[in-house]
Design goal:
about 290 residues; globular; mainly alpha; two-stranded antiparallel sheet
């Protein structure tokens, strides 16, 4: 038998390469951004200014207006995914595990997951053609109206990434033993009751994790909005989310001069928003969800 010390050394040997890569490309850039947010490099020399960049972000009339607008749009972006993508993904997973389409489950599963394999640029180009008022299927300029632009982009994103929660929930439902389901049916439960009173409580922890992952992904969202509207999402910044706001601030675009320190401040604020909300979720809700060993 391998001794405990040797076992830990062997484990460290396998973990170390991935840990080095993760530290170099994730942890170090994150910490560098946080550190940079406390300095002012406009004069060519890094001068420690404390929280002045954060104060400027939240007190400057123009910057604070753009930030709160982007934050509100990010919340709306997340809520649309939460209220549309996850219920439909759960419904598709339930249908795929039902006996009604068991013979063609592989075909349906593949068709539903194909959009997630497409490039965001391709998805944006395809949907622009579909909803183009001149030669598309919709006469109303959905991307040209402030009220419909962000919901339209959000639904495009839902269409593309629907397969991800569907696959997660599908595998979770497959892990439920048939004996548990059959016991419920013997007790007189119908299909609706079996799903909501037996199956869903068993996959509730997995569903909660998908909610958190969706929240993290949407608050880090950037690509679909940039592919459709560029770095100055219009009309009138109605599709501006935190990711595009950070891009314009850090790299400069659409008449806005790049500001590395302020951009690092925006990135740090986004990180802390995600960190605090995710930690609160795990502390308040996720630990209360019971995980059953099946």
């Amino acid at each position: 038998m391998i001794r405990t010390a040797a076992r830990y050394r062997l484990l460290a040997l396998f973990v170390l390469p991935a840990l080095i890569v993760y530290t170099a490309f994730a942890v170090y850039p994150l910490l560098s951004s946080v550190v940079l947010s406390f300095f002012d490099s406009d004069t060519g020399a890094n001068v420690f200014v404390g929280v002045e960049n954060y104060v400027f972000l939240f007190t400057d009339p123009w910057q604070s207006e753009r930030f709160w607008n982007a934050l509100g749009n990010s919340v709306e972006f997340f809520l649309i995914h939460l209220l549309v993508e996850l219920p439909i993904g759960l419904l598709m997973a339930a249908l795929l595990t039902s006996a009604r389409i068991r013979r063609s489950v592989g075909v349906y599963r593949t068709l539903l997951f194909i959009p997630a394999t497409l490039s965001v640029v391709i998805v944006g180009f395809i949907w622009r053609l579909i909803i183009n008022p001149l030669w598309g299927l919709v006469e109303f300029p959905l991307l040209g109206n402030e009220l419909t632009a962000l919901p339209t982009i959000s639904l495009m994103s839902v269409w593309q990434w629907l397969g991800i929660p569907m696959v997660f929930l599908y595998t979770a439902l497959l892990a439920i033993p048939n004996d548990v389901v059959e016991a419920g049916r013997i007790d007189g439960a119908n299909g609706w009751q079996v799903f909501w009173r037996i199956k869903f409580p068993l996959i509730a922890p997995q569903f909660g994790l998908i909610v958190v992952l969706t929240y993290i992904w949407t608050f880090n969202g950037f690509d679909i909005v940039y592919a459709l509207n560029g770095s100055a999402p219009g009309p009138n910044y109605s599709t501006d989310i935190l990711g595009t706001f950070f891009y314009r601030t850090f790299f400069g675009s659409s008449g806005q001069v790049a500001n590395l320190d302020l951009g690092a401040t925006v990135a740090s604020v986004i990180f802390f928003i995600i960190l605090v909300t995710t930690a609160a979720y795990f502390w308040v809700l996720q630990r209360r969800l019971k995980t059953y060993e099946l």
